[in-house]
Each structure stands twice: as C-alpha cells, then as structure tokens.
Amino acid sequence: MKKEIIKARCTHMDEEGNGVINYKGTLIQVPHLIEGEEGVIQIHRHKEQVFGRLVEMTQKSPLRAEPPCPYYYTCGGCQLQHLKTDAQNAFKQQTVEKLLSPFGPVEALITMPDPLRYRNKSHTTYAVNRGAIVSGIYEARSHRLTSIDQCMIQNEQADAIGLTIRKMLPSFKLMPYDEDSGQGFLRHVLVRVGHYSKQVMVVLVVATPVFPSKNNFIQKLKTLHPEITTLLLNVNNRRTSMVLGHDEQVLFGKGYIEDTLCGLTFRLSPKSFYQVNPPQTQILYGKAVEFAGLTGKERIIDAYCGIGTISLIAAQKAKEVIGVELNEDAVRDAIANAKTNSIKNTRFVKGDAGEFMVQMAVQGEIFDVVLLDPPRSGSDERFLNSLINLMPSRIVYVSCNPVTLARDLKILTKRGYKVETIQPVDLFPMTYHVETVVKLVRQMGSVIRTEISPPIISSPKPAPLNHKDRGPKKPHKGRVKKMRG
C-alpha cells in the first residue's frame, strides 16, 4: 500500500456521490468531497486501485452540512450526509438527468419530507475488538467493523434490539463468530419492523445450531423487548460473505411478520425482498401502476416479482397478472399474500423470468404489460431479448440503479420501444441511491425481434389462477442468494 499527500480541487461528483480529483491525468474518487472544494488528499494505491481520502479541508462549499450521524465519516453506509438536503436532492436529480434524459423526459424527483429513520430493516454484524464485543457494519473499502449504537436512517426499535443483544452476549457466555478462526457463535442479527403493523421480526444468524441456554436467552430478550413478535435462528456455518444460511428454525412466533402497502397486507419472511422505505415505496409503486395504464382488461407479467407486491397492487386494475421469481421463499410468500388479500386473478411461478417469457412467446401468448424491478445489476441481454420478443404494448421498468437502467434503455429503445416518462423517487435519503420508474411504449411495426431457442421446461405447468387450496410449501433448503435492500 503506497500513500502520497497532495493538495487538490474537486472537479465534479460521480454517480456514487464521491468527489473526483484529477491527479497527473488520473481521475481519483475522494469520498465526502464536494464539487469546487479544495483540500489535502491522501492518495492510496493498492495493486491496480487508486483512491483518495480527505485529510483536511482548505476551501469549503456553501452546500456542505454537518452530518447528523456521529459515525458518518467512518461508517460508509451513507454517502451524502455532508450535503445539505436540497443539495442531496439536486445531486440525485442531476444524476438521473445526466444518465437518462437522452432517452426521454425526466420528471422532478419525488423527495421524502423526513429523511431520517426510514429503514424498516437492519443488519448488524458482531465481532470482538481488543477483547470487547462490538456490533455495527463494515467500513467502506475495508473489513474493519465500525461499532455503532444507533443508525440515523434505521428504525429506532431495530437499533435498540441489536444493541441489547450485544450487551446480553457476555452474560450468556456467547461469543461473536470469528471469520479467521472459524470459532464463535453469533454472526449477524437481522431485524425487520412493519412500518404500519409495528410487528417485529428478529433473525439470529449463527455459526452453529448448538445454542447454550437458548430458552433463557429467548425469555430475557422477550422481556426486554416485548414488541418482538417472532424470533428465528438461521444457521450459516460456511466461510462466506453471504449473510443467511440454509437452515432456519422458528424460536417463537409465526416465523414471519406482516405489513400494509397500498392498502394490501404482505407477509415478510427473512429471505424475502421488501423495499426498506414503505411510505416512499407506495409512491413508487403507485407511479408504476399509473404508467401501466390499466383498464381492467390487461394481461401482465411481473418479472422479478419477489413477494408479489407490485403484482397484487396491479392485479386490482388488471385482468390477469403472472409473477415470476427465482427465490422459492418469495414465491411462497407471494402465493400466501394473494390468498390473504383475496386476489384471485394472479398466479406466481418459480423460475427464470426470461425463460418464462420465451416459453410464452413460443406458445403465442399475448401480454399487454411487462413490469420489471431487477436487482442493481439490471437485466442481462438475454432477458431483454426475451422481453422484446414477447412484444408487450407497454413496459414499466422500476430500477434502483440509473447506470444499469441507462444501459438497458439503450437496448430497448433501439429495438422498437420509446420512453414516454421517467420518474425518479427518493427511497434512500442520505445515500446516493435513487429509484426510478420508466414507462416505455411499443412503436407499431418497429420492434426488432431476435431468434432465441425455447428453454427446456422440465417443471410442471404453472398452477391455474384460482388459489383455492394452494397452501404454503415446506421451506426449501437450497442455496440462498445474498439479499437485496
């Protein structure tokens, strides 16, 4: 690791909120530096990576603010707390316009009036530092744990539960897991809080199912936090960066919580994806359904459907919705959510959405709208080819990454689709992340289709639309992918 100390001026900010300096012809990222500011920068060179760290500010921007979080400069979980709120919003608006305005008109960012304590899910990691048990999250660009008592963007109950568990460990002679030695018990604690229901789920992620004094531990935790409605034990005994393991045991409660979104009730399991900011999510999903232009006659595919949130919201204004999702836990929750809300014009399929759309196109099925909300990496070209070959009249693309969204829109607009509206929504205040929902419409006679061989479908035909008598399946013990959100 080589280090140099220089003085430099920030020329601009990149899409991730980092300041950028030009040093000897090389553009270098410097977190917490604002365009126009000057400062003393420490240059770090590690293998082929070069990045900077702000050591001292010599000229400040009028846009700079005092971060509300005492851990901000070491944590790395937020990237924009050093900017005033209006400047944060302007940064996100400019980022979306820079990347997406070549494809269509960008509306004004829908902001959040109260940008703190919005996250309904927390993920706390535990470790030993100089003989003391600490809990928090890993610093940016490192594997050092920042000990955090409370996070300014997380639910306060979730913070308190994570801190209580940290304080309980010594009295029960339980140690955090050590990645180097492979010894120890507790790896992580996940807490999910229903924003509207106030139900609380706690997941103890442990390295071994052997839990000394388990009943006493549970009883004390319930006594200190009676708001907890369900507690689970997840066993992850692999040396991996993945948080959750294969095996799961419900210690008390139902093993899931429920919350309300857009007037519907949704069941949330530990491994299911659910947006972390429900008030803003209602706005985002409302826009998605609005862009779908539903009249009650449409057939819809919801790719990457998760637990069926957008599927079920849209189903109230459509003829039929088919949700497709690879995560079996999420599919099971989606089916249960349809039954809970008495919505019968949906069905949910476990599988690859691209392959499913190829199958539908081969069978001559016609769909009016495709909704998609992929992970940050966006959609791959094969998926987009499948989507284009299906030729829906409208595509509603919900994205959490304007960079990959721009890449995908470039493909779709070259193949016969036109962007009508682009709406950014701030679901993640204090961070550089921004959600965007885009409405695309098919241009008559201009769709360029690609020959794709039909997939080999070995699974049985999807169940009929009526959900009657379709109860949840037993938990799947296959591989669990790293969670989003």
Rounded mean pLDDT is: 90
Strand order of the largest sheet: 9-8-7-10-11-12-13
How far is the N terminus from the C terminus?
A: 32 Å
| Secondary-structure-derived class | alpha+beta
Number of helices: 10
Strand segment count: 22
Detail the poorly predicted runs: 456-485
The largest sheet, given as strand count, sense and whether it forms a barrel, is:
7 strands, mixed
Radius of gyration: 24 Å
State the shape: globular
Bin the helical content.
10-25%
Our estimate of the beta-strand percent is 25-35%
What does this structure look like?
With 485 residues, the protein is α+β, with helices and mostly antiparallel strands. The protein contains ten helices and 22 strands. It has helices at 72-75, 85-100, 156-168, 214-224, 278-292, 309-315, 328-340, 353-362, 381-390, 402-414; strands at 2-9, 12-13, 19-23, 26-30, 38-46, 49-59, 121-129, 132-138, 145-147, 186-193, 200-206, 228-235, 247-252, 257-261, 264-268, 299-303, 320-325, 346-350, 369-372, 394-399, 417-425, 435-442. The strands form five sheets. The protein has a seven-stranded mixed sheet with strand order 9-8-7-10-11-12-13, covered by helices on one side. Strands 18-17-16-19-20-22-21 form a seven-stranded mixed sheet, sandwiched between helices. The longest helix has 16 residues, at 85-100. The radius of gyration is 24 Å and the shape is globular. It starts with a strand and ends in a 43-residue tail after the last strand.
Task: Compile the SSE list and pairings.
Blueprint: E1 2-9, E2 12-13, E3 19-23, E4 26-30, E5 38-46, E6 49-59, H1 72-75, H2 85-100, E7 121-129, E8 132-138, E9 145-147, H3 156-168, E10 186-193, E11 200-206, H4 214-224, E12 228-235, E13 247-252, E14 257-261, E15 264-268, H5 278-292, E16 299-303, H6 309-315, E17 320-325, H7 328-340, E18 346-350, H8 353-362, E19 369-372, H9 381-390, E20 394-399, H10 402-414, E21 417-425, E22 435-442
Parallel strand pairs: 11-12, 16-17, 16-19, 17-18, 19-20
Antiparallel strand pairs: 1-5, 2-3, 3-4, 5-6, 7-8, 7-10, 8-9, 10-11, 12-13, 14-15, 20-22, 21-22
Helix pairs in contact: 2-10, 8-9
